[in-house]
Structure formats: structure tokens, C-alpha cells
Design goal:
395 residues, alpha/beta, three-stranded antiparallel sheet, 12% strand
């Protein structure tokens, strides 16, 4: 039980001087970028946690202590303003729908930069299950797939369906045993980079190495990782992410990345009008005319969603994932220290505690319970006061 506050841990000014290896001093209020972002310089002005929080104070204003990003992320003010703008235009009947293509393109560019891939190999998908189903259906009959038994069902269910149809052979193993289960007999491994229920982080370096060694295709769900954790997604065959959590974007926005080699076997089963090179000229009639790059996997976009997602992703891109990861894990480890727990590399703190959710709500704390454990998360809009509030309830 996590019910004893660690007397050796204190919240002080020294702890607050966490160096964030990025600068927001040049940030503007318009984070919209529709061309491919340029790589940021490694030589950046360091920020303390307090400076980071002040820079973002105008963008995020949660009520109370919001510690539930693993359920849904909070939007920055720039996204709220864009929502208001587009809804007003919708109401007035002045929308020009082809203009939304720029928001889709800009969103893809920023996502690609955040996970280190070529935007031309990316597409938009509304949910991870869409990609999972496409991957599962694209594998040759008789293929063997390794899954983690604790994983989110948007990863698992499409493969279970293909197994029940007699198409796939599955090896469902414990998450901690996933890497050792990869052999030359396995065709594909499908897994979440960070486990939704408890925040365990998969060793992606080891996964890439082992999969390459045995010739195993890789499919990653980045929903609980993209937006706070450094990911080199170009090492994997297919990745997918729902953007409404750590990417702080509207629900119904998400992304897919397919490597050049995976594009040879991954079939665009969900292809529609938006999967063409020029969607507005592929609305009607045969023949099939899909894009030759990642856009062939596009699903028809949530126009309003990507209109708000673009400046949000631009903001995250400008701050830098390394800065966000350092900040988030730092706060998570402060809470762990207060509770006498070991440090971790995750921004998600999973606790076996008898403190009910009602106690958190009474303290104006928003959190959640998953797999019978209290799940507390820290993102760029959280600070030490959030840590103190959670520790007080748990004590």
C-alpha cells in the first residue's frame, strides 16, 4: 500500500531548478506551421521548471489538479481559439473545406518531427484500432503474431478476430516476457510502447535489435508515449497513435507511420477519397488512384479536429519532446520519492492503494483507476503543486 509519505523527501527550490534543455523564449502565439518543420538546434538556452511553467501558463489553465492525461490530454488555449474560430465560420456558412487540407498537412508534419520520421510516410487515422485491423488483415494466412496479454484492446482485438477467422496464429505472452518470445518463427510483434494500465515502458532499443535479428515485423501503438517520450519511430515497420492523450489534440485525430518496406505488404483496406494524391480529384468513380506515399493510408479527416490539432502539435514540437520527457518523469519521480517508491522512466505512476477516487475528487484532483490500480500522470501543464496535492491524499 502506498500510504506513507517519505520523510526524507522534501519539495524545495533546488528540486524546482530542473534544467529543461530547450528554450521557449522565441515562442509566438501562432504555432501554425504547414511546411515541414526544421530540426531544432541542440544548443539551446536551459529553462528551469518554473520558467517552463510560466511560458505555458497562458496556454494551459486546468481547474484544480489534473493528473489524468493517460485518459485525455488538455488542449492549449491556441487550440480552443481555433475551435471557436472554425465553429463560428461553420455557423456563418463561410467554410471553404479544401482549406482544411493545410491543417492536415501541418499536423502530419509536426507529428513526423515529434517521432522522427519522414512525413511522406505518414497518414491520418482516427483511432489505433483502424491501423491494427489493417495490419492484422494484411499479414499472409498462417502468420504468427506475438502480443502482450495486458495490452490495450485496440491493439489486441483485431488480431484476435483474424485468429478466430483461422487466418493468424497468436502467441499471447506477458508484457515482461515479450522480447524473449521473439524468434525466427514469429512474423510480427504488435505492442504498445507504453502500457496504458500501469505505464510500463517497453525497451524500444532492445525491441528493434531483437526484431531485426530474427526478421520480425514490428507494429507499435504510441498512444501512451508520443507527446512525452522520445521515440525513433523510423526503426519500426508500422506505428499508430491516437492523438487525444499526450499529444493534447481532439479525439478523432491520430496518425499512422509505415516504413518503406512495410508499404510493400501493408494494404490500404480503408482507402477512400482522401487516400489519393489530390483528394478533391479522387472523389468519384473508378479507376483506383491512390497516392504513392503514406497518404494512401489516409482516412477521411476530422476537419475541425485537425484544425485545432495543428497548432497544438506545433507547440509540442517547438518545446521539444526531450524537454517534456525530462519534466514529466521528474515530477512522476518526485511523487514516487514521496511515497517511498523506486524511480522509473515513466510519466505514469501506477499505485496499489486503498484510497478511493472520491478522496482525490474531494481534493480537486482528477485521476483514474485502471486494472485495479490508481493511475496518476504528469504532463507539461503539471507542476510541483500537483505532486504535493497527490502525495497529501495518498498519505
Amino acid at each position: 500500500m502506498c500510504s506513507v509519505r517519505n520523510p526524507n523527501s522534501t519539495f524545495n527550490q533546488q528540486q524546482e531548478k530542473l534544467i529543461i534543455a530547450n528554450t521557449l523564449s522565441t515562442m509566438t502565439t501562432d504555432y501554425r506551421v504547414t511546411s515541414a518543420p526544421t530540426q531544432r538546434s541542440m544548443a539551446t538556452t536551459p529553462l528551469t521548471t518554473a520558467e517552463l511553467e510560466r511560458s505555458l501558463s497562458k496556454e494551459f489553465s486546468p481547474t484544480g489538479h489534473f493528473l489524468d492525461t493517460a485518459t485525455v490530454g488538455l488542449p492549449p488555449m491556441t487550440a480552443i481559439l481555433r475551435f471557436s474560430e472554425v465553429i463560428k465560420d461553420w455557423q456563418s456558412g463561410v467554410l471553404h473545406t479544401p482549406d482544411f487540407d493545410q491543417s492536415v498537412k501541418g499536423s502530419i508534419n509536426h507529428f513526423a518531427n515529434l517521432v522522427g520520421v519522414d512525413p511522406k510516410s505518414c497518414a491520418i487515422v482516427p483511432q489505433v484500432s483502424i491501423t491494427s485491423a489493417m495490419v492484422a488483415a494484411s499479414l499472409p494466412e498462417g502468420s504468427t503474431v506475438v502480443l502482450a496479454e495486458e495490452d490495450f484492446t485496440s491493439v489486441l482485438f483485431p488480431f484476435l478476430i483474424q485468429r478466430d477467422l483461422g487466418k493468424l496464429k497468436l502467441r499471447i505472452v506477458a508484457f515482461d516476457q515479450l522480447l524473449e518470445s521473439l524468434t525466427s518463427e514469429v512474423d510480427l510483434v504488435a505492442v504498445s510502447a507504453v502500457q496504458s494500465a500501469d505505464g510500463r515502458v517497453l525497451d524500444l532499443d532492445a525491441l528493434s535489435e531483437v526484431a531485426t535479428l530474427h526478421g520480425v515485423k514490428t507494429y507499435l501503438d504510441l498512444t501512451q508515449a508520443a507527446g512525452w517520450k522520445r521515440i525513433e519511430a523510423n526503426r519500426f515497420d508500422v506505428v499508430s497513435v491516437s492523438a487525444y492523450k499526450w499529444l493534447c489534440s481532439p479525439r478523432g485525430t491520430g496518425f499512422l507511420y509505415a516504413s518503406k518496406t512495410s508499404a510493400e505488404w501493408l494494404k490500404p483496406f480503408n482507402a477512400g477519397w482522401y487516400a489519393g494524391d489530390d483528394p478533391w480529384s479522387s472523389i468519384y468513380g473508378a479507376p483506383l488512384r491512390l497516392s504513392n506515399d503514406g497518404r494512401k493510408y489516409n482516412v477521411s479527416p476530422d476537419w475541425f479536429g485537425y484544425y485545432a490539432a495543428e497548432p497544438t502539435l506545433a507547440l509540442l514540437d517547438q518545446i521539444g519532446i526531450d524537454s517534456i520527457e525530462t519534466h514529466n518523469v521528474y515530477l512522476a519521480n518526485l511523487l514516487r520519492s514521496e511515497l517511498g517508491l523506486s524511480e522509473s522512466n515513466s510519466a505514469i505512476v501506477s499505485l496499489a492503494t486503498d484510497v478511493p477516487l472520491e478522496k482525490f475528487l474531494e481534493a480537486d484532483i482528477q485521476t483514474s483507476v485502471r486494472a485495479g490500480r490508481t493511475r496518476i500522470t504528469f504532463h507539461l501543464y503539471n507542476d510541483i503543486e500537483d505532486v504535493e496535492a497527490a502525495a497529501k491524499v495518498l498519505s
